[in-house]
Amino acid sequence: MKVTHRMIAKATGFTQSTVSKALNSTGRVSEKTTETIRRAAKEMGYYSQERKNHNRRESHLFPQIAVLVPEISSWYYANLVEMLQAQIERLGGSLCVFVTGFVPGKALLQLETLKVQNTFDGIVVLDYPDQAMNADVPLIMVTGETAYVPTDKQYLIRYEDRIERLVSHLTELGHREIGFLGETNTTDKLTTFCDVMRKRRLPLNMDFIYTSQYRFERIGHDGVAALARRGAVPTALICAYDEVAFGAIEELEKLGYDVPGRVSVVGINNIEYCVHFKPPLTTTQLNPALLRDAFTEIIQKAIIEEGACARRFDIPSELIVRKSTAPCPT
């Protein structure tokens, strides 16, 4: 429902003329009265409404969406931002990206800044599922393994079966010695891996697990070298993301372990280079069509039409089988 000057006047007890002067900064209205009227107008959603009307009328770029992303140096986040941009532009809007890093609390601080600026119609937050976040506009979170429950004005796009699908694929090939290589920013995936292994009553050998403070391919190199020094190289390795798997395969072959003859290796995200790597990498990806549909539905109904309620979208992942996995050696 459109908020009018008459509605604000009725709510505050001032005349419609006084309300008009206070909101438009015309005429002589006391500072205290102006503050009271503007505070009421904000609480009633008047400014948000006027901002959207201005966007439609002046720039024709509505909605305006802010995206908070940990980084754009990885293929996964860069591709996700590009997909969001394409969808928003298709809806006639624009996108602004804020890189927060993996610094604890920085996403929350940036969110508070955006709330004060009050210039965006919606905010998309990537991979901060376990922190309490609130905004005066629809807040969309895209994340992986989490039990987070969205509240008012929050929308969660969640994918949680990536590890499950990889473990299923490897066990179908006869593997029971399965390890995990990750980093300090992928502890949610490690937790899920351990849970899946226990649920399936598979042996969970902590010597097969390696966590690094570094990023990308170096994790794979350092992780495989560490497992080899322990004398604990499993028959299969699940890597926290594809770049880790690339480093792991290179280090395995350097140490004389055939991939996939001796060790099968899998990744997560299905970045573009997976199909060109030697051997091509078995991995998982979000169903891209369902992800686009979920995001478009939220933007259309929650922001443009202002008619949606908080909701969670569970997006299934897809297993892409390539030549980096093979039956377990006898």
Question: Can you give a write-up of this model?
Answer:
There is one protein chain. The protein starts with a helix and ends in a 10-residue tail after the last strand. Helix content is 42%, strand content 17%. The chain has helices at residues 5-12, 16-24, 31-43, 46-59, 75-90, 106-117, 162-172, 187-199, 217-230, 242-254, 288-304, and strands at residues 64-69, 94-99, 122-126, 139-143, 154-158, 178-183, 209-212, 236-239, 264-266, 283-286, 311-314, 317-320. With 330 residues, it is an alpha/beta fold. β6 (178-183), α8 and β7 (209-212) form a beta-alpha-beta unit. It is elongated, with a radius of gyration of 25 Å. It contains 11 helices and 12 strands. The protein folds into 3 domains: 5-44, no CATH class; 61-159 and 287-316, Rossmann fold (3-Layer(aba) Sandwich), CATH 3.40.50; 162-285, Rossmann fold (3-Layer(aba) Sandwich). The longest helix is centred in the C-terminal third of the chain and has 17 residues, at 288-304. Strands 2-1-3-4-5-11 form a 6-stranded parallel beta sheet, sandwiched between helices. Strands 7-6-8-9 form a 4-stranded parallel beta sheet, with helices on both faces. The chain has a two-stranded antiparallel sheet with strand order 10-12.
